[in-house]
UniProtKB/TrEMBL annotation:
One of its GO terms (molecular function) is potassium:proton antiporter activity. The chain crosses the membrane at residues 15-34, 40-60, 72-96, 108-129, 141-162, 174-192, 258-275, 287-306, 327-349, 355-377, 384-402. Residues 45-193, 260-400 form the Sodium/calcium exchanger membrane region domain. GO terms for cellular component: plasma membrane. InterPro entries: Alkaline_pH_Ca-Antiporter, NaCa_Exmemb. The keyword Transmembrane helix applies. It is found in: Membrane. Residues 207-248 are annotated as: Disordered. This is Ionic transporter y4hA. It holds the Pfam family Na_Ca_ex. It is a multi-pass membrane protein.
Amino acid sequence: MSGPAPAPASIRSPLGLAAAAVPVLAVVVLAALWGRHLPAIAEIFIVALLTCSVLAAVHHAEVVAHRVGEPFGSLILAVAVTVIEVGLIISLMTSGGSSAASLARDTVFAAVMITCNGIVGLSLLLSALRDRTAQFNPEGTGAALATVITLATLGLVLPAFTTSTPGPEFSGPQLLFAAATSLALYGLFVFVQNVRHRDYFLPVHTPDHPPAPAGDGTATTSGTATTSGTATTSGTATGDGTVTDDEHAPIPSLKSTLTSLGLLLAALIGVVGLAKVESATIERAVAAAGLPQAVVGVVIALLVLLPETLAAGRNARRGRTQISLNLALGSAMASIGLTIPAIAVASIWLGGPLLLGLGATQIVLLALTAGVGILTVMPGRATLLQAAVHLCLCAAYLLLAANP
């Protein structure tokens, strides 16, 4: 998922050709290998193809989103990423039995910790190394962080304390309320970010980094990352006539959009199918390494968040801290706000318990993340120290996930 950068590549470009070939290859490989026992080299190839399929799916979702515009574009992207995440979770839950009952919780919590600490910390680090102080808009970033904290608490903390059912799980009415609240808050945030208070999520221009005048050879950008992580931008042409940002880049033709829509569907089928093919191997590898089941959730989150991480780092290196933070917090919000409702619906036919409540160690890490995040966001600027604190929290989470 990209930030304020060139619009999604044309299908005739090398990137476009690769993005077009990967979904087709994934579907062909899936059909050829379904139900077969695979050698180790084939397993490695499938894992690589699965990763490329995730990136290709996001690319084609961006093309469709660029055509339909906001706020519908952000919804398309969020739904595409959620399908990938939920597909991976369900594929592993159906083969993992009772040991996978907490996989949805582990994956969503991993996404929250990786985005709010890992991606945020990386963004602040790169921005602070570039400009000494990372500047961002506290109104928009604070609103996003508050929404993430609320969604995480309602969906992941409360189940550990409710008494209607034994264990860290919701009763039916409680799960329905959590799912409905998640969808409502996510939808409202999309509206606020893209329509009502769009200016709260635009990059901050300081005296040292004013917006460049049009036609001087430097692109002027003001961007808003969607809640799925992909930024929408407005920009100006460079001095050589090249348009650098999405809104001024050519809108994809109807033919290109329909082609990308078809390839997006193929990529999603490939991701979910290949995940099902690899599910048993992944679980055996985790068990053989002596790692807890929660590590599977971390692997899923890292795979799904790979595009956001790359995009956030790219934007931070360009001094667009606000866009990087929009990417991070928007991704966390989409992961909770859409994944939990989807898993709640899937649990109807999956059977078995749906364990959503966090353990004591995880709650402590979430509370610490919330407190540190609030202190980071409030001033509207951050230094290397805040970046290091967030990165340390992410490292602590990864260590405790593997060695609780």
